[in-house]
Amino acid sequence: MIEVHSTGEETYSVNVIAAENTNHEVMLEDWYYMKLTDGQILPEELIERSFEFLLERESGAEIMEIFDLCLIQNNFPEYEKTMKRELRKKI
Questions:
Q1: 54-67: per-residue pLDDT in tens?
Q2: pTM tops 0.90
C-alpha cells in the first residue's frame, strides 16, 4: 500500500507499506505536474502512480528517501510516456 500526504507547497510525504516499510519525501513542482497530467488527476494520485511504477522496477528501499519527481525520468526514460499513457486509460 502507498500513502501520499501533502506536507506543504509542492512537497509530499510517501509511506510505502509492504514487507519492508519505507518513507520518502517527494517534491512535485506545478509545471511538471501539469506537463504529465494537465491537471486531470490530483498530485497525490500522480505520486502514488509514480511509486507503483518505481516499485515494479526496484524495491522500496532502493527508492531515494528525498527526491524531485521529475528525476525519475533520468533513471527510467519510459517514465513520462508510461504516466501519460496510464492517465489516458483512466479518463
A1: 999 999 999 999 99
A2: yes
